[in-house]
Amino acid sequence: MMTKMVPVTVLTGFLGSGKTTLLKRILTEYHGQRIAVIENEFGPESIDNELLVSEQSEEIVELNNGCVCCTVRGDLLRTLLDLKIRREAGKLNFERVVIETTGVANPGPVCQTFFMDDDIARYYRLDAVVCIVDAKHGMTTLDEREEAQQQVGFADRILISKRDLVTDEEYDRIRKRLVKINPRAQMMPVNFGEVDLKQILDISGFNLNAVLDIDPDFLKEDEHHHHHDHECDEHCHHHDHDHECDEHCHHHDHDHECDEHCHHHDHHHTDDIGAFLYTSDRPFVHERLENFLSGIVQVYGPDLFRYKGVIYMKGMRQKILFQGVHMLMGAEPGQPWGAKEKPQTKMVFIGRKLPKDVLKAGLDQCLA
């Protein structure tokens, strides 16, 4: 009999964003779920001492609400296998795992752990990456730390903390910027870690059958300001190849982004990490697309954080669903196209300084 896989949520966010507050709620509130929390690279910003006494080695503490908390100073893979062994032996009882990454970590390697090792891949199901962004200091953090942009780029859900400390205009500004970096993550404000666990658990962000959610604002802006089939966000500058300019050139975005003299808070938000959306009503030729994507992943894998899509393939009645993390890519057939549904490919790539013109031209050449 197949054992039910243990779902895993990766919780990420920069120092001071509110991860610890949220974790404390998960660990101390009675929510009827037994959760194992792994603190990867346990640091000074972590769960306070009343809840957890830190030793130099790994430690597992069982809490009275049925949760388990591990502090990890070693290999995440080893810790997950250790939890699996203890759970199978009946020494630990938990239904799901939450991994808190260190504030400055890129979540990519954590996610890859669940695809690289067969024992882990069979036992645990990576559910989603949840990122917390501080509304008050998030703009500055995104400007100064690329790791913060990486965390946003990897996320399936973004929780915006400290909403009460900013004006509506400031909140709208950071929200729009986050949409530019990652249009596929659902966003929601969260106060003092108060969030319905159902909003952050069982999201199925890594499930191929999950709907490809692209923030409608991103599409609206995309279609309104650019050519609808491929253009990316306002932080991607080199795609306007009819008047090449460097990465600091803002003037071509004048219809929806102010110039460098308008607001001091906007003039240098040229994020290295951003999203590239590709849509087409023409079908792909299977072999061409497979060869092109394999090559892209080999060359740009380290800079590709998350990519996902619903593909219209020539000669196939079903939608083809694909996704990847860095260099690991997977695809499988989905539901057939509906009788009244117009087949259309929709793909989103999120990564660092992606060559959008190269991707666009290459994907176009794979069309029938």
Automatic annotation (TrEMBL):
GO molecular function: hydrolase activity; nucleotide binding
Keywords noted in UniProt: Chaperone, Hydrolase, Nucleotide-binding
InterPro entries: CobW-likC_sf, CobW-like_C, CobW/HypB/UreG_nucleotide-bd, P-loop_NTPase, Zinc-reg_GTPase_activator
Catalysed reaction equations from the record: GTP + H2O = GDP + phosphate + H(+)
Database matches in CDD domains: CobW-like
Domain (CobW C-terminal) ranges: 273-367
GO cellular component, one term: cytoplasm
Protein family: Belongs to the SIMIBI class G3E GTPase family. ZNG1 subfamily.
Purpose: Zinc chaperone that directly transfers zinc cofactor to target proteins, thereby activating them. Zinc is transferred from the CXCC motif in the GTPase domain to the zinc binding site in target proteins in a process requiring GTP hydrolysis.
Protein known as: Cobalamin biosynthesis protein CobW
Source species of the chain: Basilea psittacipulmonis DSM 24701
